[in-house]
Design goal:
- The chain is an alpha+beta fold and about 180 residues long.
- It has two domains: about 100 residues, Orthogonal Bundle (Peroxidase, domain 1); about 70 residues, no CATH class.
- It has a four-stranded mixed beta sheet.
- Helix 4 runs antiparallel to helix 5.
């Protein structure tokens, strides 16, 4: 299991370097590549194995990763400190910092039926106007909400589903007895 506090610290340090160098988008991609190799590839167990010499791991990293020297240093640091398995958590934390820096908010939109790409774009535009940020929406279909939509942006939730409206109406009617 990833140590999220440590991952966040690594991500913050990497993000500070990327921001100062004006290379946030490039670093986002490269840190994601590092995470793919260190924690999700067939080589991941080797990078996490303390019995394999660190120098061997470094040589392998240099062969399989095509990233800038500073991102390579991050990859080597994660391996050296025994945190290769935390690389995905580092990449995720880095992506959140980069999104915040670039003014991007992520929304999860749940509907009873699939949305067209035009509908998703319209939702993104309306949310973007309200939030003052560029919104990237992911969609989820959950027929049990009957109709309407449930929108989550960060820790904010707007439940405009028919299911919730019916529950509210039911409570009101039961209270009127």
């Amino acid at each position: 299991m990833a140590d999220t506090a440590a991952a966040r610290r690594y991500a913050q340090a990497a993000f500070a370097i990327a921001r100062d160098r004006g290379e946030v988008p490039a670093w986002r991609n490269e840190v994601n590549d590092v995470a793919s190799v260190l924690s999700e590839s067939q080589l991941a167990p080797l990078f996490a194995d303390p019995a394999v010499p660190v120098d061997d791991k470094f040589r392998l990293l240099e062969r399989v990763l095509d990233v800038s020297p500073l991102v390579m240093n991050l990859a080597k640091l994660l391996v050296q400190k025994g945190r290769a398995q935390d690389a995905r958590a580092v990449a995720d934390a880095f992506a959140r910092l980069a999104d915040d820096y670039e003014g991007i908010a992520h929304a999860e939109v749940t509907t009873a039926v699939p949305l067209s790409s035009e509908q998703v774009a319209s939702i993104e535009a309306r949310l973007g106007q309200q939030l003052g940020r560029r919104v990237v929406a992911s969609t989820k279909v959950e027929p049990s909400i009957i109709g309407g939509a449930i929108v989550r942006v960060g820790d904010r939730l707007v439940d405009g589903s028919v299911r919730t409206r019916l529950k509210r109406l039911r409570r009101e009617l039961e209270g009127a007895r």
